[in-house]
Write a structure and sequence with these properties.
globular, 7 helices, about 120 residues, mainly alpha
Length: about 120
């Protein structure tokens, strides 16, 4: 299979489909939220906050809205008092787990080299 078949046209042109994937993975928290939902299944926002360290409720809400907009998560509302909402991965969100795990494996294998390069350049 040629690279243009994978990307849906010329490699990385403005309307290239591969850019969608890079766009989704580019946000700091979106991949983390997808990973946690893939690991634990449907979750309420409060449970996600407890599972994900260092994310504020506002930033989590923004990430969930962005992921819902991109068709990667579904929001389920329950008619209860008090109201209950949880989020689950869609088929597209579940399919993204493989690439996210691959990036995580890359980070484990090469993270020290990346940090050393940053440190060397920061020192001057």
């Amino acid at each position: 299979m040629e690279e243009s078949d994978v990307t849906g046209g010329d490699v990385f042109v403005a309307d290239c489909r591969a850019r969608i994937g890079f766009e989704v993975l580019a946000n700091r928290w979106d991949s983390v939220v997808v990973y946690v939902l893939g690991e634990r299944g449907p979750m309420r926002p409060r449970a996600m906050l407890a599972r994900i360290g260092g994310i504020s409720p506002k930033v989590l809400n923004e990430a969930l809205r962005r992921l819902e907009y991109n068709g990667l998560v579904e929001r389920h509302r329950y008619a209860e008092a008090p109201p209950r909402v949880d989020y689950a991965l869609t088929e597209a969100g579940t399919a993204l787990l493989g690439p996210i795990r691959a990036v995580g494996a890359w980070a484990v294998a090469h993270g020290d080299a990346v940090l050393a390069a940053r440190e060397a350049l920061d020192r001057g």
